[in-house]
Backbone:
């Protein structure tokens, strides 16, 4: 384990973890004690300065002898950790907490860094299963995972043509709740702002939005759909500004596919002269920290990323037990409910006939 990887696992900067590992001043005593305790609990006490290597205990409580769960990401490593809106950081923290509590190691692995995944997994030791991050489930990905002969589950990703284990955000419940909330405030023309990149989770959210409009007896019009633009320019609102200007009649409320697009939606509206929420209400998705410092603070859907991570670990343990008992495997999809977080980007319509 490298110091920078340990920093990512604990959710602190590499500089902070360096001060702890080397026993140097520069951080508060409570933070140092907290991080030191976590490092020891994870079994990486040998990285601490001044630590004397103890003889390997014969009991199976040794980190080396414990079973491991691999967190395998098919996403680009740099992209994942540089994305301040990343959904997966919270998931990883939840998986790490659950693994520690049940006495397992959690090992982070990036597919792009491994030439031979089978060999990398074999060299890891006693692997119980894998938690998989994958934007698109393909035949090639499934063939590779199945070759490992280990149970695995995807995070918030599934494929209707290939049944797989997955732990997901309950998008259907989320959009039914948020559309119903807007309708109760008088909004009848509700639009949707999507990402430019195609993922299975994004597609599922768009389907859920359309289903929510139908369930609440609201019109589903093509002109109420907008695309935020390229993800490479996270703060670029040029595309949205142009789409909003060209719209004959903007919806009174917009639902964004995630908080990143929600923030871009708010900024685009303001730059072309609309007020949020006086003219257009906006709701995001995920309750990312950025949603709280948005101007105005963004009403959003809170998805329990920590709970998803924990449930992934728990599912792997159950699947491993079933594999060992030769029980017939039937892939399952688990859905984690969400909650609406009300802030200042939504307003009740005074003229509810709009």
Residues:
């Amino acid at each position: 384990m490298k110091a920078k990887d340990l920093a990512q696992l604990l959710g602190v900067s590499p500089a902070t973890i360096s001060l702890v590992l080397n026993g140097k001043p520069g951080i508060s005593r409570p933070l140092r004690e907290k991080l030191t305790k976590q490092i020891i609990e994870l079994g990486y006490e040998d990285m601490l300065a001044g630590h004397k290597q103890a003889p390997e205990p014969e009991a199976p409580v040794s980190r080396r002898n414990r079973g491991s769960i691999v967190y395998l990401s098919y996403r680009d490593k740099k992209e994942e950790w540089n994305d301040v809106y990343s959904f997966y950081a919270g998931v990883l923290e939840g998986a790490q907490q659950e693994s520690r509590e049940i006495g397992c190691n959690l090992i982070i692995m990036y597919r792009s860094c491994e030439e031979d995944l089978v060999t990398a997994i074999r060299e890891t030791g006693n692997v119980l299963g894998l938690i998989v991050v994958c934007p698109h489930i393909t035949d090639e990905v499934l063939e590779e995972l199945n070759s490992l002969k280990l149970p695995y589950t995807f995070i918030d990703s599934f494929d209707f043509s290939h049944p797989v284990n997955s732990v997901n955000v309950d998008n259907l419940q989320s959009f039914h709740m948020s559309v119903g909330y807007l309708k109760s405030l008088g909004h009848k023309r509700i639009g949707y702002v999507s990402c430019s990149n195609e993922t299975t989770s994004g597609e599922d959210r768009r389907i859920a939005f359309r289903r929510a409009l139908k369930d609440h007896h609201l019109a589903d019009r093509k002109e109420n759909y907008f695309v935020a633009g390229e993800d490479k320019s996270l703060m670029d609102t040029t595309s949205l500004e142009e789409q909003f200007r060209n719209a004959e009649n903007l919806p009174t409320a917009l639902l964004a596919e995630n908080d990143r697009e929600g923030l871009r939606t708010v900024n685009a509206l303001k730059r072309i002269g609309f007020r949020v929420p006086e003219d257009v209400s906006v709701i995001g998705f995920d309750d990312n920290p950025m949603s709280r410092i948005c101007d105005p603070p963004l009403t959003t859907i809170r998805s329990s990323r920590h709970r998803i991570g924990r449930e992934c670990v728990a599912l792997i343990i159950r699947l491993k037990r079933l594999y060992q008992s030769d029980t017939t495997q039937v892939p399952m999809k688990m859905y984690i409910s969400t909650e609406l977080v009300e802030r200042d980007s939504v307003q009740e319509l005074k003229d509810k006939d709009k």
In short: The longest strand covers residues 127-133.
